[in-house]
Amino acid sequence: MVLRAILVGWPHWRLARSTPDCTQRYVAALGGNVEMNARVVGVAWYRLRAGFARKWSGYLSLVLLIALVGGLAFASLAGARRTESSFTTYLASTNPSTIAVFSRYHIPSLGLNTGYDAHVAQEIAHLPFVKRSATAIVFDGNIDLPSIKGIHPNIKAGEEPPGFLGSTNGEFSSMDKVSLLAGRSPSPSNADEAMMNAGAAQEEGLHIGSVIHIPFYSDVEVNSSAPSNPKIVTVKMVGEFVASRDVLESDINALGSSALIFSPALTDELAAQFSTGTETFLQLSGGDTHAKLVLSEIDKVDPVATHLPSQITSQFVPITQQAITPEAVALGVFGAVAGLTVLLIAGLAIGRIIRIGVDDMQTLRALGASRGTLLADEVLGLLAAVVLGSLLAVAFGVALSPLAPLGPVRPVYPTPGIAFDWTVLVVGFLAILVVLGSLAVVLAGREVRRATTQRRSPQWKREPAWARTAAASGMAISVLTGLRFALEPGRGRSASPVRSATTGAVLAVTVLAATVTFGASLDSLVSHPSLFGWNWDYAMMASFGGQENLPAHQVATLLDADHDIAAWSGANFSDAELDGVRTGVLGDHGRRRRTSNPYRPRTRGGERHCPRSHDDVPTAPAHR
């Protein structure tokens, strides 16, 4: 009856107090004796004010706990999902090509004396299933790299000089769009502008505003042994970019990823006479479905393409995703732990708030309150706190969303800022509301049943075993008293959550120690390549990232004669499919000086093992 009176509303009660006739009609609507029900309403209002005045701090603590820890859990879980999908989201924003293939290259030994052929590019663009075509023209082989003025080389061991390339039909700008990190893109109509990636800036000591003078030799001059005067082209660096394939790359790939991109105007001016090669990028109808068919047709148009590397864009996505997934998983695990933590600690807080009000239940019961009234008296405030805390947790989780995604894609993520992951927010909100709300009802119902059953005299409680052991050991009374204060929870309103606080402290210390240890171990592993098998000091890379062979006999003779080289080994880098998954492959040529092998992979057991037969291939754990 008290609950029903409260739900009718406080404005009606004030009106009833001011007019006796209204009072009679108001209470009569509730049913029962007018005088008795008026007293019940008065007691209910007093109870509401007095109870809230004593419990507001507990309600506030519950709200803040759910809001802060729950919001952190929401943000972590949503951030994990955003991190996991960050690369695919970014890649889609670049309007990626389906396949990339070298359609022409300056290779005199194969009868090719130019790196660009507009007719070949047009034939490829009109092949079946090709929706769109764009070309990137390469100029590396027609440039006298040591004679470039305005650079300050700082090339580290194994790094290749930067590549020089450009496009006249939208590659890098409308297809496979590069992402600007600083500055701006070269103006399409200015033949004296270019942009660079971070690798080129570091290797050549460049920055935005740097002006360099590049000597170009025509295809005819490259094929001739007679001296000639190069064409000097002056370009200014106006921006710094990153390409989708370079957002996340291995240490080996990073050695050859530095690049400069010329403006379309300069590319058009140089393409006919000064090109080294042409890479064609195609978007296909049906995606990868017709990729192999189109590649075979390209080989018919330009047979030389069979000797040069090609790539299907989707093949490097799983490799990149494998590197991003651990970070996303770690963030998701943290969010799950935070979510379980808020449910556990909030559940303990709810139990404590209910226990504090146990004595009041006896008083209300003596005044005639029913079980439903007692239950509502305990539950309504808790449910309101849980709902408010859950709503604030959603708001806090959304406020933290700009911190995601984490990882290498974050600087180029196309839609940074606030994000609403409704899957996480709605499911998380309902989970907190249902679990904590149900827990509040269950705990309150248990206490109500105890309060409304036949009252029994307090039973003697057996002393804990640890207390008996401590007393029997002859400890000083001051020490024993201190242990009791620290470890005994007490009873009634003076009860304290000793067990939960102790458990929480132990878990916090354990998690902190495990996190610090794991972080230190991972940092040590990453900073010492020899620990994961890369125990070489210098790498000599052929073009195309090591996919071409260096002159084997000459190289072996020179390296064997150099007394500063303790050991060396030849290796070739390529790609292959293992169980349908595209992955990088390192082929060891087997030639090494003395007994040391620079490439020494470790197996799970820690032993070193190299292939012993032609069909023996060790793989990384991700491919097992």
Overall 3D geometry?
elongated
How many individual β-strands?
Answer: 12
Level of helix content?
Answer: 40-55%
Distance between the termini: 68 Å
The main β sheet shows up as:
10 strands, mixed
Given as residue ranges, the uncertain stretches (5+ residues, pLDDT < 50) are 1-34, 594-608
- Calculate Rg over CA atoms: 37 Å
The number of distinct helices, counting runs of at least 4 residues, comes to: 20
Strand fraction band? 5-15%
Average per-residue pLDDT, rounded, comes to: 79
Category by helix and strand content: alpha+beta
Explained architecture:
There is one protein chain. The protein is α+β, with helices and mostly antiparallel strands. It has helices spanning 2-8, 10-18, 20-30, 34-84, 86-93, 118-125, 198-204, 219-223, 251-254, 264-274, 291-301, 316-356, 358-366, 371-400, 422-452, 465-472, 477-487, 498-527, 543-546, 552-561; strands at residues 99-105, 130-138, 163-166, 179-183, 193-197, 211-216, 231-242, 259-262, 277-284, 310-312, 569-578, 581-592. The strands form 2 sheets. Strands 1, 2, 3, 4, 5, 6, 7, 8, 9 and 10 form a 10-stranded mixed β-sheet that branches. Strands 11-12 form a two-stranded antiparallel ribbon. A hairpin with a 2-residue loop joins strand 11 (569-578) and strand 12 (581-592). Helix 2 packs across helix 3 and helix 4 (34-84) runs parallel beside helix 14. The chain is elongated.
